[in-house]
Protein backbone atom coordinates (compact mmCIF):
# COMPACT_ATOMS: atom_id res chain seq x y z
CA UNK A 1 0.00 0.00 0.00
CA UNK A 2 2.84 2.40 0.88
CA UNK A 3 4.50 1.61 -2.45
CA UNK A 4 1.34 2.56 -4.36
CA UNK A 5 1.20 5.91 -2.56
CA UNK A 6 4.88 6.53 -3.27
CA UNK A 7 4.46 5.61 -6.98
CA UNK A 8 1.38 7.86 -7.24
CA UNK A 9 3.23 10.80 -5.73
CA UNK A 10 6.25 10.19 -7.97
CA UNK A 11 4.07 10.03 -11.08
CA UNK A 12 2.23 13.20 -10.09
CA UNK A 13 5.52 15.07 -9.60
CA UNK A 14 7.00 13.71 -12.82
CA UNK A 15 3.86 14.54 -14.79
CA UNK A 16 3.65 18.11 -13.51
CA UNK A 17 7.32 18.76 -14.31
CA UNK A 18 6.99 17.13 -17.74
CA UNK A 19 3.88 19.18 -18.44
CA UNK A 20 5.92 22.40 -17.97
CA UNK A 21 8.51 21.32 -20.53
CA UNK A 22 8.14 23.27 -23.80
CA UNK A 23 6.90 21.33 -26.80
CA UNK A 24 8.96 21.07 -30.00
CA UNK A 25 6.64 23.67 -31.57
CA UNK A 26 7.23 26.07 -28.66
CA UNK A 27 10.99 25.60 -29.00
CA UNK A 28 10.84 26.23 -32.78
CA UNK A 29 8.82 29.43 -32.37
CA UNK A 30 11.05 30.72 -29.54
CA UNK A 31 14.15 30.08 -31.67
CA UNK A 32 12.55 31.81 -34.69
CA UNK A 33 11.70 34.88 -32.62
CA UNK A 34 15.15 35.01 -31.02
CA UNK A 35 16.85 34.81 -34.42
CA UNK A 36 14.56 37.57 -35.73
CA UNK A 37 15.49 39.81 -32.82
CA UNK A 38 19.18 39.13 -33.48
CA UNK A 39 18.65 40.24 -37.11
CA UNK A 40 17.28 43.59 -35.90
CA UNK A 41 13.56 42.95 -36.05
CA UNK A 42 11.09 43.75 -33.34
CA UNK A 43 8.77 40.85 -32.48
CA UNK A 44 5.51 41.35 -30.61
CA UNK A 45 2.38 39.30 -30.10
CA UNK A 46 -0.44 41.66 -30.92
CA UNK A 47 -3.89 41.89 -32.38
CA UNK A 48 -4.44 43.25 -35.88
CA UNK A 49 -7.89 44.79 -35.79
CA UNK A 50 -9.07 45.56 -39.34
CA UNK A 51 -11.33 48.47 -40.14
CA UNK A 52 -14.28 46.32 -41.23
CA UNK A 53 -16.53 49.27 -42.12
CA UNK A 54 -14.02 50.59 -44.64
CA UNK A 55 -12.52 47.36 -45.98
CA UNK A 56 -15.00 44.54 -45.47
CA UNK A 57 -12.29 42.55 -43.68
CA UNK A 58 -14.06 41.17 -40.63
CA UNK A 59 -11.79 38.90 -38.59
CA UNK A 60 -9.18 40.24 -36.20
CA UNK A 61 -5.82 38.47 -36.28
CA UNK A 62 -3.96 37.56 -33.09
CA UNK A 63 -0.45 36.73 -34.21
CA UNK A 64 3.23 37.63 -34.12
CA UNK A 65 4.15 40.98 -35.67
CA UNK A 66 7.66 41.08 -37.14
CA UNK A 67 8.69 44.69 -37.67
CA UNK A 68 11.80 45.95 -39.44
CA UNK A 69 12.51 49.65 -38.86
CA UNK A 70 14.35 52.08 -41.11
CA UNK A 71 16.03 54.34 -38.53
CA UNK A 72 16.93 57.04 -41.08
CA UNK A 73 13.29 57.61 -42.04
CA UNK A 74 11.28 59.87 -39.72
CA UNK A 75 7.85 59.71 -41.39
CA UNK A 76 5.51 56.97 -40.17
CA UNK A 77 2.97 57.31 -42.98
CA UNK A 78 1.30 54.07 -44.11
CA UNK A 79 1.98 53.32 -47.79
CA UNK A 80 0.04 50.05 -48.21
CA UNK A 81 -1.33 47.09 -46.28
CA UNK A 82 -2.71 43.75 -47.53
CA UNK A 83 -4.52 41.11 -45.50
CA UNK A 84 -5.08 37.41 -46.22
CA UNK A 85 -8.86 37.61 -45.90
CA UNK A 86 -11.77 38.34 -48.18
CA UNK A 87 -12.61 42.03 -48.26
CA UNK A 88 -14.17 44.55 -50.58
CA UNK A 89 -11.02 45.71 -52.40
CA UNK A 90 -9.04 42.90 -54.00
CA UNK A 91 -8.03 44.50 -57.29
CA UNK A 92 -4.65 43.28 -58.48
CA UNK A 93 -4.08 40.88 -55.57
CA UNK A 94 -3.97 37.06 -55.52
CA UNK A 95 -7.09 35.13 -54.55
CA UNK A 96 -7.84 35.36 -50.83
CA UNK A 97 -5.95 38.65 -50.28
CA UNK A 98 -7.51 42.10 -49.84
CA UNK A 99 -6.36 45.65 -49.51
CA UNK A 100 -6.63 47.06 -46.03
CA UNK A 101 -5.09 50.37 -47.08
CA UNK A 102 -3.48 51.53 -50.27
CA UNK A 103 -2.04 55.03 -50.18
CA UNK A 104 0.75 54.78 -52.75
CA UNK A 105 1.25 53.69 -56.31
CA UNK A 106 3.20 50.49 -56.24
CA UNK A 107 4.42 47.70 -58.45
CA UNK A 108 1.66 45.09 -58.21
CA UNK A 109 3.80 42.47 -59.98
CA UNK A 110 6.45 42.76 -57.24
CA UNK A 111 3.82 42.68 -54.49
CA UNK A 112 2.11 39.61 -55.96
CA UNK A 113 5.47 37.85 -56.34
CA UNK A 114 6.25 38.60 -52.69
CA UNK A 115 2.85 37.32 -51.56
CA UNK A 116 3.37 34.08 -53.51
CA UNK A 117 6.87 33.74 -52.02
CA UNK A 118 5.66 34.01 -48.42
CA UNK A 119 5.55 30.29 -47.71
CA UNK A 120 4.57 30.14 -44.09
CA UNK A 121 1.43 31.59 -42.67
CA UNK A 122 1.69 35.28 -43.43
CA UNK A 123 -1.59 36.99 -42.63
CA UNK A 124 -0.72 40.67 -43.11
CA UNK A 125 1.96 42.61 -44.97
CA UNK A 126 2.24 46.37 -44.45
CA UNK A 127 4.72 49.03 -45.52
CA UNK A 128 5.13 52.37 -43.83
CA UNK A 129 7.72 55.00 -44.68
CA UNK A 130 9.79 54.08 -41.61
CA UNK A 131 9.03 50.35 -41.17
CA UNK A 132 7.63 47.20 -42.71
CA UNK A 133 5.48 44.69 -40.87
CA UNK A 134 4.78 41.02 -41.46
CA UNK A 135 2.11 39.33 -39.34
CA UNK A 136 2.34 35.55 -39.08
CA UNK A 137 0.62 32.90 -37.04
CA UNK A 138 3.85 30.82 -37.27
CA UNK A 139 2.22 27.49 -38.01
CA UNK A 140 4.74 26.27 -40.57
CA UNK A 141 8.51 26.17 -40.64
CA UNK A 142 10.17 29.41 -41.59
CA UNK A 143 13.35 31.22 -40.79
CA UNK A 144 14.19 34.66 -39.52
CA UNK A 145 16.36 35.18 -42.61
CA UNK A 146 13.30 34.59 -44.83
CA UNK A 147 11.21 37.02 -42.82
CA UNK A 148 13.91 39.69 -43.00
CA UNK A 149 14.24 39.12 -46.75
CA UNK A 150 10.48 39.48 -47.21
CA UNK A 151 10.42 42.65 -45.11
CA UNK A 152 13.29 44.12 -47.14
CA UNK A 153 11.44 43.31 -50.36
CA UNK A 154 8.18 44.78 -49.01
CA UNK A 155 9.92 48.04 -48.10
CA UNK A 156 11.18 48.43 -51.68
CA UNK A 157 7.76 47.96 -53.30
What this model shows, in words?
The chain has helices at 2-20, 24-38, 52-55, 108-117, 144-155; strands at residues 42-48, 61-69, 78-83, 98-102, 122-128, 131-136. Helix content is 38%, strand content 25%. The chain has a six-stranded antiparallel β-sheet. A hairpin with a 2-residue loop joins β5 (122-128) and β6 (131-136). The mean pLDDT is 87. It has 157 residues and is α+β, with helices and mostly antiparallel strands. The chain has one domain (23-155).
Q: Could you give a short description of this structure?
A:
The chain has 157 residues and is of the alpha+beta class. The protein has helices spanning 2-20, 24-38, 52-55, 108-117, 144-155; strands at 42-48, 61-69, 78-83, 98-102, 122-128, 131-136. It has one domain (23-155).
Question: Strand order across the biggest sheet?
Answer: 1-2-6-5-3-4
State the end-to-end CA separation: 72 Å
Largest sheet: 6 strands, antiparallel
Order of helices and strands: HHEHEEEHEEH
Q: Give the overall pLDDT as a whole number.
A: 87
> How much β-strand is present in the residues?
25-35%
Query: What is the gyration radius calculated from CA atoms?
Result: 21 Å
Structural class: alpha+beta
Estimate the global geometry from the Cα principal axes. elongated
Keywords, please?
alpha+beta, 6-stranded antiparallel beta sheet, 6 strands
Write the layout of secondary structure elements.
Blueprint: H1 2-20, H2 24-38, E1 42-48, H3 52-55, E2 61-69, E3 78-83, E4 98-102, H4 108-117, E5 122-128, E6 131-136, H5 144-155
Antiparallel strand pairs: 1-2, 2-6, 3-4, 3-5, 5-6
Helix pairs in contact: 2-5
Amino acid sequence: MNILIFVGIALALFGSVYWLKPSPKDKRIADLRLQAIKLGMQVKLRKFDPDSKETGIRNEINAAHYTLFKPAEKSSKLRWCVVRQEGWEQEGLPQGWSWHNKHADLDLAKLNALIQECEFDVQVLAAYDNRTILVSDEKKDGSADQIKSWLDKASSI
